[in-house]
């Protein structure tokens, strides 16, 4: 059994796009994290939902733009490798998204990073009552 909190089933992570969830960081500040598909094991990676260039969300509630294995920043177009988080282009060139540790077990994704505690699916403002959630139950 993975030593963490279940976030989602792997099947819920779109092949092209992202699965957005909210966690509390080490300072108990709410922060958004995205799950994206990656061709390397374990098939899913997790990254903060914030560009390294400026505070721009990749996933604004309807999935991040993912093209050819890269997350595309909607503000200035820098692209980040879905598997490594590295960026070699645009204004964010030379940066890497900070790692968020997850484990995949029996088709489920678990948040195992000691710096984050899972809060809920969707973005910070998605309290389950709004109409902006892209989560279908
Ligand atoms: S904010 Fe992402 S590339 Fe500028």
TrEMBL record:
Residues 18-111 form the Rieske domain. Keywords: 2Fe-2S, Iron, Iron-sulfur, Metal-binding. One of its GO terms (molecular function) is 2 iron, 2 sulfur cluster binding. The keyword Methyltransferase does not apply. PROSITE patterns: RIESKE (PS51296). Gene3D superfamilies: Rieske [2Fe-2S] iron-sulphur domain (2.102.10.10). It comes from the Archaea. InterPro entries: Rieske_2Fe-2S, Rieske_2Fe-2S_sf. It holds the Pfam family Rieske. PANTHER family: PTHR40261, RIESKE DOMAIN-CONTAINING PROTEIN (PTHR40261:SF1). This is Rieske (2Fe-2S) protein. It comes from Halobellus litoreus.
